[in-house]
Design brief:
Layout (H helix, E strand, L loop, with lengths): L5 E10 L2 E11 L4 E5 L6 H9 L6 E6 L2 E2 L5 H5 L3 E3 L12 H12 L14 H13 L15 H14 L4 E5 L7 H14 L4 E5 L3 H7 L2 E6 L2 E6 L1 H6 L1 H20 L4
Helix pairs in contact: 3-4, 3-5, 4-5, 5-6
Amino acid sequence: MSAPAVELVDLRKSFGKTEIIRGANLRVQPGERVAIIGPNGAGKSTLFNLISGRFEPTSGEVRLHGERIDGKLPFEINRRGLARSFQVSNLFTRLSVFENIRCAALWASGHRYEFWKFLSRLTDTNDRAERVVEMIGLARRRDALAMNLTYAEQRALEIGITIAGGADVILLDEPTAGMSKSETKHFIELIRDVTVGKTLLTVEHDMGVVFGLADKIAVVVYGEVIAFDTPEAVRANARVQEAYLGSVLADQQAAEAGPHP
């Protein structure tokens, strides 16, 4: 049996005397799509920062395909096949859509810091970038500067940058935040399409996105993973309902119903 794509083993993180992650354990198998949910302040983004190398654990282990990566730098983890996006788009705003994607594709195409090469002659990299631009639905905007894209287009471009490097484990931090319902629906389909065959972990607050996208849901409360199961099982979990999900679903249903006459 293959090693989990991502595994957390008694992972802990403290800032001074404040313990944020309190012995988190999680095993995500290759190809699974996992949504990480929980109340504000539960430690979801901290978990992402620990997995991607932005934070170093106080104790415990983070493993990528069975190899320990805790303590490694973000670029070292990225080169082992893990990429992440952030809540706020992080783009080269004065480069075009194609140029942003090409920058991300250079390392995956085998090109390192070779400053004497002309980018226009790197056929493999350019072909890879063109395919990704097509995948994310921005072919018509190929030559537009990133700064001139709509918000949803910028988020799509960031997804493209995340996958262009060839990573097989993708972390998306609130990918649909700030989108309209129609944009969110389109974006869920985009995420499904571009992560086929990859392992996906996403932090998400929109329960419609969570239940529409995830194979499994990890519920984080007070720095611990209190449940990890299919969406149906998590929805029916009494402990999850008490700690988080019941109130969230009630609020969401009330918002969708609108004001009472």
